[in-house]
């Protein structure tokens, strides 16, 4: 029996996913402490892992994540990242990690890319802009074990999850950065269809992100920024009953069976990977 992973869940003004994320962590076998933005930076010391959840920190003023990225807590988090601690940013948390220069981390501390306003295209034409909330498919891109959150996920495994954001489009001024990320195996998630195929068109690519990228890690692999919400796909019952993949079939088969509906959903894989497989 191993000791439970100690996780600090960082909360900024406007965060709104800490309860679901804490529940997912605890049910996966982790011990969770919520650390608020106005606590001293020293409060982050001594944890095994850190998570910044979703929401709208500082109301997304200026641009999503940029104000939170300047908080003293983030300087302390950068030290923990350099020391190899596991760090996950979900949605707004991903935006904070990007703005803090922790991801992609080719030159730690430098802002090397952006999560821009959603720009949905179909056949080359813009059909929508702004906030979009829906279920999507994710294809796991990196090698198994590339990050602490994907140790239990096979290569090219397809997982349904939700997105809910207005600024989630991975972009970069320097196109060579994308080539480096590919070479470094830093692209962890891409949006795909039910069969795992990539499409640039909306709604398969739900925000216009370059290369359908949905999540990337730093060079070392211990820091992961992803736009989809694994905590909202923690239980099988959360998957839409009409979903087209094997997960949808499993969800339909569980209809009317309360115990089956409470069984693990795809998002639980990330939290159990962090916990080392502890928990149901």
Main sheet summary: 9 strands, mixed
CATH superfamily: Class I glutamine amidotransferase (GATase) domain
Strand order of the largest sheet: 2-1-3-4-13-12-11-8-9
Total tally of structural domains: 1
CATH topology descriptor:
Rossmann fold
Give the CA-CA distance, first to last residue.
Answer: 15 Å
Along the chain, the helix and strand elements come as EHEEHEHEEEEEEHEEEHHH
The whole-number mean of residue pLDDT values reads: 95
Task: Please identify the oligomeric state.
Answer: single chain
Unreliable sequence segments: none
Hey, roughly how much beta strand do the residues contain? 25-35%
Radius of gyration: 18 Å
Overall helicity? 10-25%
The number of strands is: 13
CATH architecture call: 3-Layer(aba) Sandwich
Structure description:
It contains seven helices and 13 strands. The protein is of the alpha/beta class. The chain starts with 5 loop residues before the first strand and ends in a 5-residue tail after the last helix.
């Amino acid at each position: 029996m191993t000791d439970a992973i100690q996780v600090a869940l960082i909360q900024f003004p406007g965060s709104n996913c800490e309860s679901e994320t804490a529940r997912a962590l605890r049910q996966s076998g982790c011990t969770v402490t919520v650390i608020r933005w106005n606590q001293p930076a020293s409060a982050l010391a001594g944890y095994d892992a850190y998570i910044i959840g979703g929401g709208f920190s500082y109301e997304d003023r200026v641009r999503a994540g940029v104000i939170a990225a300047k908080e003293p807590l983030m300087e302390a988090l950068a030290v923990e990242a350099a020391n190899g601690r596991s760090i996950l940013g979900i949605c707004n948390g991903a935006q904070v990690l990007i703005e803090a220069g922790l991801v992609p981390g080719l030159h730690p501390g430098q802002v090397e890319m952006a999560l821009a306003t959603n720009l949905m295209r179909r056949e080359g034409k813009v059909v929508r802009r702004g906030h979009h909330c829906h279920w999507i498919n994710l294809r796991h891109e990196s090698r198994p074990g590339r990050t602490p959150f994907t140790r239990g996920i096979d290569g090219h495994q397809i997982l349904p999850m939700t997105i809910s954001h207005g600024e989630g489009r991975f972009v970069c001024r320097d196109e060579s950065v994308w080539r480096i990320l590919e070479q470094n195996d830093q692209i962890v998630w891409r949006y795909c269809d039910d069969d795992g195929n990539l499409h640039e068109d909306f709604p398969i690519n739900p925000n216009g992100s370059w290369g359908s990228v949905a999540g990337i890690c730093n060079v070392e692999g211990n820091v992961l920024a992803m736009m989809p919400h694994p905590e909202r796909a923690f239980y099988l019952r959360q998957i839409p009953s009409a979903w087209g993949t094997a997960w949808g079939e499993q969800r339909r088969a569980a209809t009317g069976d309360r115990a089956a509906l409470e069984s693990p959903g795809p998002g639980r894989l990330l939290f159990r990977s962090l916990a080392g497989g502890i928990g149901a």
